Amino acid sequence: MRNRHRTGAGRINPGHRAQRTGLRILGILLTAVGGVFTAIGVVSFIGSMATMSGPPQYFWCAFVGLPLLGVGTALLKFAYLGAIARYTAGETAPVATDTFNYVADEVRPGVHALGSALAAGLAGARGAERCPGCGNEHDAGAKFCDQCGASLQGATCADCGHENDADARFCAGCGKTFGDAG
Fold this sequence. Notes:
By secondary structure, the protein is mostly helical. It is built from four helices and four strands. The strands form two sheets. A two-stranded antiparallel ribbon has the order 1-2. It has a two-stranded antiparallel ribbon with strand order 3-4.
């Protein structure tokens, strides 16, 4: 996968590697030069304060060194951005995966209980069914309609033995019309 990524980046910008290498070299040089100038300026400032011999002689070096140090650090950040991002992703992805799996394992019983409760609630809501003959509502366990007396039990096909709905006109198992002799 790493080679595919580099190959893909090469097609978008063929000079990417050279630019990255240039940024790294320039960033290191500017950071080193800026660090040296900053150190000279700070030492000059502290030395003049300690001896009280007058104004610092090389304090101007700090004003040159600090911007060089900042620019060099920024160049290094851009030069190593891909490597830092890959390292960060490699370190955080397993932790995120472990966290997700832990949360999923801990939540699973609650989700299962909630799903069971919803299923039970939906089954209870479907408890009132309608009579195929007159449309009157009746309890789920009723065998006959209390308004018209129609059978609420499923019709069993005499040919294949398939259990059909009470209002079925054809067998769902063999397709025969109920009441047909054959």
